[in-house]
Amino acid sequence: MTDVLARLREMQAADLPVHGGRTLAYVYDSGLPDVDRIGREAVAAYAGSNGLDPTAFPSLLQMENELVGFTADLLDAPDGAVGTVTSGGTESCLLAVQGARDSRPDVTRPRMVVPSTVHAAFLKAAHYFGVEAVVVPVGPDFRADAAAMVAAIDADPGRTVLVVVSAPSYAHGVVDPVPAVAAHAAERGIRCHVDACIGGWVLPYAARIGRDVPPWTFAVDGVTSISVDTHKYAYAPKGTSVLLHRSSAHRRPQYFAHADWPGYTMLNSTIQSTKSGGPLAGAWAVTTTLGHAGYERLTRDVFEAVDRIVAGVAEIPELSLVATPDSTLVALVTDATCDAFTVCDEMALRDWYVQPQMAYAGQPATIHLSVSAGTLPHADDFLAALRESVAAAVAAGPTAVDPEVAAFIAALDPAALTDDDFDGLLLAAGLTGGDDLSLPDRMADVNAMLDLATPAMREALLVAFLDRLARPVRATRS
Ligand SMILES: Cc1ncc(COP(=O)(O)O)c(C=O)c1O
């Protein structure tokens, strides 16, 4: 038994660290080991409990109602607001779309209006639920263009079941103009969802500590639902998000019941049916331990880290902010002398994970930072690593994609990518083909190649790549 746990730890050593504040995407670190321990113990205690039936596991129902109540207080929800704990941001976004669609059975070809910076989870929802996504380009400040969103709604209000805005957007960290969009949606009787998956737990505390936060909560008329992830800035273990609705009537279409079969009557509030009680218990334990006072402290810390990073970036001539961050997400752009992807590789060599974001809609590639409270004690170290990484990237020069490879990519049809095409690209990218697939230490060349590809081509390449990675490990058969 100890061997198995030792092996687990050994395998985990290859992963990005989830503690230590040095991983600036995917994970959120409070920097408080006791809080993490309580969260982990709660997950373990409830790992086998089943959230499928709240009457069989009443403690799970109680924890869910308390967590939703805490969230409702945080987001200025009116009396009568209700919510559901889901498995994560994507499930909350999926349910917001599914609920909006099913609230309008009269609409045969539903559409929803979203800004081009909306999280990809909404495009996934459109794909899953057969809702047309009308994607509206954002303005020059990377915020949703309210006038363009209104025009897109009015192009076909009868078929529009939902409009979505973000607080903030993942890619640029800015809050959309929620009041203007929500007011128009309300006038037309259309649902307005605010995707605050990543910012919803920090922005209210940011306002409480006196920072300038644009309006985006239920205090804004016309907002009908909000998603906020507890497994992000509530610093809870992975596996929970809260989807709040302005009223139980708004939530009702999200529920699924099926009694017309010989087994138990299935009654679900989420996409999952059987679901571990662990993540909910973990989120309940962490939020109860920290309380509003704890989150206020952590929010002071995380914004101190953000402010120091922003000030430090201003002193690096090759770097600039894509936008002044409204929240705790920072997007950086490099000048022509410095390759953004090489900076990411150089940061990794210095044990910092920062996330490359590909070029989009005429904007160059950027570097994403999701800053955590746990990053604050290491802010100076981060800036020193960033300065060194930029200097190394400038010294290395531009990452040039071999013109033949570029021409090969340009000639490929993403809809008809064959295994042979993919093998050719793997070889060209220095990733060995066949069964022997391995990632290079430096990703800049691969990223530069992907950056050249159209989004459709990038999707096809990455799907093919994931298909190669995800192969079963079989016991050898004689
Ligand atoms: C704004 C926003 N919405 C939705 C999601 C999806 O959340 P998850 O990765 O938990 O499914 C994210 C994730 O970063 C996000 O930033």
Automatic annotation (TrEMBL):
It comes from the Bacteria. Keywords: Aminotransferase, Lyase, Pyridoxal phosphate, Transferase. The keyword Transmembrane helix does not apply. One of its GO terms (molecular function) is transaminase activity. Its cofactor is pyridoxal 5'-phosphate. The keyword Acyltransferase does not apply. Belongs to the group II decarboxylase family. Sphingosine-1-phosphate lyase subfamily. This is Aminotransferase class V-fold PLP-dependent enzyme. It comes from Nocardioides mangrovi. The lineage of its organism: Bacteria, Bacillati, Actinomycetota, Actinomycetes, Propionibacteriales.
